[in-house]
Amino acid sequence: MTLNIRELVNEDASLISRRAWSDRAVYELEKQAIFARTWLFLGHESQIRNAGDFVQAYMCETPIILARGEDMAIHASVNSCSHRGLPVCRNDHGNTKRFVCPYHNWAYKVDGELASIPQERQVKCKPDKSTLGLKKVPRVESWRGLIFGSFNEHIEPLETFLGDMTFYLGAWLDRFPGGVEFVGSPHRWVIDTNWKLPVENQLGDVYHGPYLHASIIAADSEAGMEIDNYAYNAIPTPGHGASFRLMPSDTPVDKLAWGFESVVGQLGSDELKDYLRSVQEQAEAQVGAVRARMKGLAYGVYPNLSFLWSNAGFKVSHPRGPNKVEYWSWSVVPADAPEHLKRQLRNNHASFFGPGGILEQEDAEAWMQQNIGANIDFADDRKFYYGLGLGEETTHPELPGEITTGANEYYARAFFSRWRDELLAALEQA
Amino acid sequence: MNSTLSGFELQYSVEQFYYREARLLDGREYKSWLTLIHPDISYSMPGRTNPLVDNRERGNESMISVERELEGIDSDGLPFRDENYAILWVRVDRSYKMNSWAENPPARTRRIIGNVEIIEDAGDRLSTLSNFHLFYARPGLKDYFYAGQRHDTLIRIEDSYQILKREIVMDVANVNVPTLGLFL
After folding, report:
1. How many residue pairs bridge chain A and chain B with CB atoms within 8 Å of each other?
2. Does A375 lie at the interface with B, CB-CB under 8 angstroms?
3. pLDDT reported for residue B75
4. What are phi and psi of B134, to 5 degrees?
5. Percent of chain B at pLDDT exceeding 90
6. Higher pLDDT pick, B5 / A69
7. What are the backbone angles phi and psi of residue B106, rounded to the nearest 5°?
8. What phi and psi values does residue B5 have, to the nearest 5 degrees?
9. Residue of chain B nearest A190, judged by CA positions
10. Which of B85, B175, B182, B184 to mutate to test the interface with A (most CBs of A within 10 A)?
11. Please, which residues have CB within 8 angstroms of residue A215's CB and are 6 or more apart in sequence?
12. A329, β-bridge pairs
């Protein structure tokens, strides 16, 4: 069957085919058209502070070792031995001088260079070890400690790729003079759904909140009212998105401060509350008056990185075939917060999101049920409707990018227009 | 409770407590279950990871101990759950709302509790270990199987117990179940 990409996403991206979410051929094309070409999130510099530190990562289904070399540079290598292809790194994180393949003990430095072949002295024809290192991810760049890699040697610089998304990411990340750090190992949650749905959920789908999550966040709750009155979606570049509340300038600090709306913030110790207040009181000096009034919801960085500001989590939706994801999530805390407060703040994410979270169990249920709808027969003529707010995107004097209200689905139309165009471009080049 | 129970009687009373708890949870009587929870509860589930094995530990049991895989509440890592009474109360309250979609319709569950050991008897407090297998059938999805170990501190209340501390060690590599947000 030949793929008709324009059948998957129509011109204004208001209709999306079920096959875009479930077809194996579409998925294989996504790998070549998107994951082989764009920037992909690998990890955070706080995870690999010292020479020899490493963590595992993925670029789509390809396992990656992200490591700090002896030269203190950041290296990303494909975790697959040059001899028989086994993963040479079998641990989630650690500090080492060598990765040793279990099969024949070929040994690699943390930067991926091949250090030794035990069988080499038994043969006369010596392999050229300098050409037999692990495959390097050719481009690795960081912004604010967030490390991305790309298999596309000719890709634009990371900061160009992020564009005005840095304005929105910085609105949170730059509040903390010492930056942020990722806490512990990511939670790895396997969910029967397509990788794009968790992404879309965080990219700008504000208005599933008061409905899917009404058991916890009622529409008439304070958070629900704030979303009704002050929520915006910003689309700085198609595929990226930021949803947030832009609060009035006379909003009291306790209503504005990040973390206060969480149970952790509300029930936390006085010391924690003082800390959250102090962060907010410095916010204007750190990020300027407009961004200090921003109270974030959720963000997406194309194609599969999400940032949940309200609960301080970073997430990556790693594809595992058309109908499965490995959804990784980390709690993120300010690096210069006192250690005992970091332990309170890490809960802001894990109690609500991730596999044990009160809230995200409802999301996972919705995602798994959508996957059933995406795989059914006899309904291909009924595409998913993405037309809410069609043509109503506009601009805002204080905010970069295209701006919509919270209920407008332009964020998703923009994502799927980019997705469609990248698939078409790959097919044309093939 | 009579603190002069024999070892057999003490073991029996703890096992009966856990069977009753399992029956309440499988019967979705979460409000009744909450009466078994002490107001000062620490209820947690460590994260589970695959750290690098320390070469110097070769030959020792500690080399592959379960503890070194856990990111619990006293670690700098990321637990799956770290909850107090208020959060458990929110979870119970949620269960009886029409829009708790992950549990509407509710999953059919069956817990088997076993390997109950009293590790320490400190008078009014007992430290225990117990294992569980949980069968989980959520309408509209596949069936799932959960396994793990609970490390509890029980406090004696009149002729029964309340749970003051529970740490749940899940036997998971990747999380292959739809939620770890159950009462376990």
Report:
1. 120
2. no
3. 95
4. -130, 120
5. 91
6. A69
7. -75, 150
8. -60, 145
9. B176
10. B175
11. A362, B94, B97, B99, B100, B101
12. A187, A315
Percent of chain B with pLDDT over 70: 98
ipTM of this complex = 0.95
pLDDT tens figures, A88-97: 999 999 999 9
The tens digit of pLDDT for each residue in B86-142 reads 999 999 999 999 999 999 999 999 999 999 999 999 989 999 999 999 999 999 899
Question: pLDDT of A370-379, one tens digit each?
Answer: 999 999 999 9
Ranges assigned E (strand) in A12-87? 15-16, 40-44, 53-59, 62-68, 74-78
Return the structure tokens found at A78.
């494909």
Where does residue B98 fall: left (phi above 0), alpha (psi -120 to 50 degrees), or beta otherwise?
A: alpha
B50 touching chain A per CB within 8 A: yes
For chain A, say whether B102 makes contact (Cβ under 8 Å): yes
Residue by residue, what is the 3-state secondary structure of A30-44?
Answer: HHHHHHCCCCEEEEE
CB contact under 8 A, A91 and B52: yes
What is the least distance, in Å, from the CA of B13 to any CA of chain A? 31
Crossing angle of the two packed helices A410-429 and A196-203, in degrees rounded to 10 = 140
Structure tokens at A137: 């991810």
Token pair 């190992």 in the structure block, residue: A185
| Continuous segment of H or E residues that includes residue A417 | helix A410-429
Question: Strand A93-95 relative to strand A53-59: parallel, antiparallel, unpaired?
Answer: antiparallel
